[in-house]
Amino acid sequence: MKTVTTLEDLRRARAALPDPLGLVPTMGFLHEGHLSLVRRARADCASVGVSIFVNPTQFGPQEDLDSYPRDLERDLALLRDEGVDLVWTPTPEIMYPPGFQTWVTVEELTRPLEGARRPGHFRGVTTVVAKLLNAFQPQQAYFGQKDAQQAIVIRRMVRDLNFPLQVVVCPIVREPDGLAMSSRNAYLNPEERRAATVLHRALTAAEQAFRAGTREAEALRRIMSQVLAEEPLARPQYVSAADPETLEELQGPVERALLSMAVYVGETRLIDNVVVGDRG
Ligand code: AMP
Asked: What is the pLDDT of residues 22-75, one digit of tens each?
């Protein structure tokens, strides 16, 4: 496994790797969710690249950029064990050279849900992902359903900008008690860690109601909110039943829905989702 920092070294090392190359973009502090993407890329592709970059432009001024967990040595050991070929750890100065003023923005799809609560977040995500795709020139790029809106936004960007690659979205990997794996789970104290299972319990309750015949979007949102309200440490920011393609909030009876939420547990903001309906 080769680990590089400069763009010149990345380009040289990439050129020596066989196609198809699968790219897994990450912000590091890797867990089984990230590794599931790496394993899928390893199974699909002749070579595998991973980027580790805590992207400052996708964090708001009040968000956790400075405290975001990092452990590069551990990350590299995990990636070596997975048979990764190339890891890029660029610096902020490489990704954002002095005078930087060029952004990639996706419009409607970034307005609701996470986009409404994290202004500028998706502009940072799409810009950095576009730069990573330019640098690695992968044939496949792997993202997690954990960040459902992000996956949809990136798919749109790849289509709209004619990037010659396939976007692969992989299922959410969970802890045994249902909590979706996230680097941010490291912020939770033991009491908060127990409370954090409420997101999955709320989604599961709505999913079960859907399976049992509850179809009204309002009812699905109410079920999720009721379960969340039972956990005193949980402060929901939003609870949504949205169209899985357009991300518009649904009203009335629905055939398919992206059920999603953002919930503060203590100071930690957690997100989770499930798709119900023919694909869910
Ligand atoms: P991050 O390091 O948080 O930017 O995540 C890098 C990639 O891993 C993104 O595509 C995430 O959606 C994906 N990912 C993060 N957590 C999970 C998880 N629990 N299951 C599946 N994919 C995940």
From this structure: 999 999 999 999 999 999 999 999 999 999 999 999 999 999 999 999 999 999
- For residues 133 and 252, membership in a common domain is answered with no
User: In this model, does residue 280 exceed pLDDT 50?
Assistant: no
Same domain, 150 and 236: no
Read off the CATH number of the domain in which 271 is found: 3.30.1300.10
Is residue 101 one of the residues assigned to a domain?
yes
Residue nearest to atom 10 of ligand 1 (CA): 143
Domain residues for 223? 183-275
pTM: 0.98
Residue in 214, 199, 203 with CA at minimum distance from that of residue 255? 214
Q: How far is the CA of 216 from the centre of ligand 1 (A)?
A: 30
Is there an atom of ligand 1 within 6 Å of 234 CB? no
Distance between Cα 31 and ligand 1 center (Å): 9
